[in-house]
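User:
Can I borrow your eye for a moment on a structure tokenisation matter? Would you put together a sequence-and-structure record for a protein of your own picking? Please set it down just below, with no commentary around it:
AI:
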Amino acid sequence: MLSEPAALLYEKLIATGGLSLTDNPELTGLPESRELIDKAFARERHVGVAVLVAVEPIRAIDNAILVRQRQILDQYQGLLKLRDEMTSLQQLYASTSRLAEEPTDLVRVITDRQEIGALSVELSLSAQQDVLSLETEHFTRAPDPRSVRALPADLVARGVRFRNIYSRAAMEIDGARQMLNASIAAGWLCRVYPSMPMKMVLVDERAALLPLGRTGMEGAILIQAPVVVAALRGYFELLWSRAVPVEGGPADLSSEQGSVLRLVLTGMTDAAIARHLGVSERTVRRHVGALLTRFGVTNRVALAVAAVREGAAD
């Protein structure tokens, strides 16, 4: 909201009741003085002796919040316009180009177990936005919490979100609860749904890996057909909206998430928020991901608009 020098000067103006421009002529040319005046945190009073005085904090901050909200809304509207233009261009591209040389390039059957496992990992590591997963109660071996690994740093840095839905029966298997807790600790967002017909791994909007059998290791289908991938993503989002968040999930705002949300609204970066709260950037990104899911949005601008609309930014 204010630079550090401007904030210090504002506090000094409040503490002193104002500073004489005659006794402090250097104030006129200071960048922090101009910043306070431009942002309506201070004003020059020319009744008798010229004085730089602070605007009442409640009025100054109220005005700054309104200005910030208008900026956010303007940015959001600009992004919506950009998205509409992108959709039009995508439709034009799809109508004038061939997405694959042969239809078989869009669907591939895999029967080798090692290749299935390696492909699942490879797809996840190549994600740019989302890794979506469905996990049923059918395993080739009992779940092992030790197999859960921390999310790769480069994926976290890209802001990739990892979401997993477990079937209710999967939670009754020995070791499943420990694996779920380990997944949450590693950065996954997890929910539980009563029953699902199959496992699935879906990456961004470009590829999905579906099982040919109950465990997924009997054989799998790699699908890269955009229409089918979009339908599978819609299926996942429908399940996600109806699934129940597990402990540690973003069902409600925790005090930490509330703190992160307030700082996000100020325009601070993840690194700045981490320094401010004394936590790691990875923790901040995990909280931001949970907030995006909680408010049903996909970016910070939309998050700010939704938070202000719902009164969560107070």
About this structure: The first helix runs from residue 4 to 16. The CA atoms of residues 192 and 203 lie 20 Å apart.
